[in-house]
């Protein structure tokens, strides 16, 4: 099972760190993608990290504000989100191959 944690309500300019945790299997050998879906919009990929952690990708919408990392000892992949904007409000998901994790809501509002 794959699940994202760490969402919540944050003011514009604030930060949150999301965690993607695998239970029952090891994330170690897998590339992980982070996606989000805002109300009324399609789900979009925002970040990816390779299985070795040495290659990352960010969409233009989050580049320079978000970082992604992994701790295979904790079976966890992180999405650090800084300088959050209201347009970052969405449900955030992690994904391995065809498998989606349960999402977590991020709301950026004053």
Structure description:
The chain has strands at 2-5, 8-10, 16-22, 32-37, 44-49, 56-58, 66-71, 76-81, 90-96, 99-100, 104-108. Strands 2, 4, 5, 6, 9, 10 and 11 form a seven-stranded mixed β-sheet that branches. Strands 1-3-8-7 form a four-stranded antiparallel β-sheet, with no helix packed on it. Helices cover 0% and strands 50% of the residues. A hairpin with a 6-residue loop joins strand 4 and strand 5 (44-49). With 110 residues, the protein is mainly beta.
Assembly state (oligomeric):
single chain
Radius of gyration in whole Å, from Cα? 13 Å
Query: H/E series, N to C?
Result: EEEEEEEEEEE
- Content-based structural category: mainly beta
Percent of residues in β-strands:
over 45%
- Overall mean pLDDT stands at 95
The count of β-strands is 11
* Unreliable residue stretches: none
Characterize the biggest β-sheet. 7 strands, mixed
Shape, per Cα inertia axes: globular
Into which percent range does the helicity of residues fall?
under 10%
Task: Quickly count the helices.
Answer: 0
Termini, distance in Å? 34 Å
């Amino acid at each position: 099972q794959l699940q994202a944690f760490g969402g919540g309500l944050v003011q514009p300019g604030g930060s949150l760190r999301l965690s993607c945790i695998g239970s029952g299997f090891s994330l170690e050998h897998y590339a992980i993608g982070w996606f989000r879906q805002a109300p009324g919009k399609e789900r979009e990929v925002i970040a990816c990290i390779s299985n070795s952690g040495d290659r990352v990708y960010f969409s233009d919408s989050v580049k320079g504000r978000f970082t992604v990392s992994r701790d295979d000892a904790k079976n966890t992949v992180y999405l650090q989100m800084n300088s959050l904007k209201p347009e970052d409000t969405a449900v955030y998901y992690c994904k391995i191959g065809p498998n989606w994790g349960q999402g977590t809501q991020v709301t950026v509002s004053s």
